[in-house]
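Weekly modeling sync, notes
Attendees: S.R. (lead), two postdocs, one rotation student

Agenda item 3: backlog of single-chain predictions. S.R. asked that every request posted to the team notebook include the full sequence so nobody has to chase files. The rotation student volunteered to paste the first one in as an example of the format we agreed on. Action items at the bottom.

Example entry:
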Amino acid sequence: MQLTSIEGTQCRPAETADHDLAIAERLAAASQGDVSALFDLGVAYST
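Predicted structure, as returned to the notebook:
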């Protein structure tokens, strides 16, 4: 087993606009009773 360091200089910020839109769509669907949207929101919240 070999230790591999994580280089912080190779990090890039996530594209939040796409993620924000996905969350907004799931919130809208969940407000109308879509159970799978509730699951998706739970997964997004826990990660």
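Discussion: group reviewed the output briefly. Residues 15-46 form one domain.
Action items: rotation student to repeat for the remaining queue; S.R. to check formatting next week.
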